[in-house]
Every structure is written in C-alpha cells, then in structure tokens.
Write a structure and sequence with these properties.
Layout lengths: L2 H25 L10 H8 L4 E4 L5 E7 L5 E7 L5 E6 L3 H4 L8 H8 L7 E4 L4 E9 L5 E9 L5 E8 L14
Length: 176
C-alpha cells in the first residue's frame, strides 16, 4: 500500500469516527443514566433550548432536533447532577399528556418548544396555535397542534394533521 492510499484510508476512518460520534451526541445515546453527569450531557448534546430547575434540585433539559425539528429529546438530570434518563418527546404517549386546561409552561415541559415557524395567532377566535412537526408511525410527517386561549394561555384543544408540503400535496417521508 502506498502513502497516498494509506492517507486516504486514515482520512476515511477519521471521517467515519466523527460521523458516528456526531450521531451519538444528537440524541444523547452515548450518555449513560446514573453515570453521565450534567457537564457530560452539555458536552454531548450542547446547550438546551429550554431548561427547568425543579425545587428538589433536579433539572429538565429540552433538545429539539431532527430534520425540520421532527424530534425533541428531554434529558432529566437528578439533584446529584447525574443523568436520570433521556426521553423522545414527540410521540403519541407524550401528545396524550397534553390536555385542555394546561398552561403553556406545562405543555413546554411535556413537548419542548414548538417550531418557530409554526406558531400562529387567530384574532377572531382569540386563539394561539403552537405546532410540532413529527414523524408518525408510518414514517411520514404530521403536525401536532395545541390551541391556547390567547388571553389566559390555557390549552383549549389539541389535534393532529398531515404535513402536505410535499410534491402534489403528499406528506413528506421522514428524514428527507
């Protein structure tokens, strides 16, 4: 093997290692509950979009991710500064937790921040709509919508609807 081939192979190997390590930090899959510390979470996943400190000293960190923010990960750090768990937030079980009567902050703690382009105010109904783009169980994009009373900031209703921005109004396949 000559020097040029060897350098090319080393370069390819470095690229593959960086690619794999980048993917690990994306969802925190390289972190270990009960072992990894808050600084390790931040080093791996970066600064959270939102963070909440609980009275007991534990903390919840929100990480919107994915193509067009189709995923949000919630990292929970205990009062001892160690990672407790990481959850994917944009799924049916989390959507089911959002109910009429909840506040905006309560919704944010369940789902993380909505997509900035998907926040809309409807003056005639005095409603504020927040939407999250997610991948459904058929691997196509849908929106989960939460409608708030704009005056009180309390949830009125929720719904899902397809994302029809693909060619000919077809739902885009996730990851594209």
């Amino acid at each position: 093997m000559d020097c040029n081939s060897s350098a090319w192979i080393r370069g390819l190997l470095v690229f593959c290692v960086l690619l794999v390590s980048g993917c690990a930090g994306y969802s925190g899959s390289n972190l270990k509950p009960g072992v990894s510390t808050r600084p390790e979470v931040l080093a791996s996943m970066g600064e959270p979009a939102l963070a909440w400190k609980n009275p007991d000293g534990s903390e919840q960190l929100a990480y919107p991710r994915g193509p067009a923010s189709t995923q949000t990960f919630m990292a929970y750090v205990g009062p001892d500064g160690r990672l407790q768990r990481i959850e994917k937030a944009l799924d049916p079980s989390h959507f089911a937790r959002v109910r009429a009567g909840m506040s905006k902050d309560q919704v944010l703690r369940v789902l993380g921040p909505p997509g900035p382009a998907w926040t809309e105010f409807y003056s005639r109904r005095n409603e504020l709509a927040w939407s999250w783009l997610f991948c459904n169980d058929r691997s196509v994009e849908e929106f989960f919508d939460v409608m708030f009373d704009a005056t009180t900031g309390i949830v009125r209703s929720t719904a899902t609807h397809p994302n029809l921005v693909g060619p000919d109004g077809i739902q885009p396949v996730c990851g594209r």
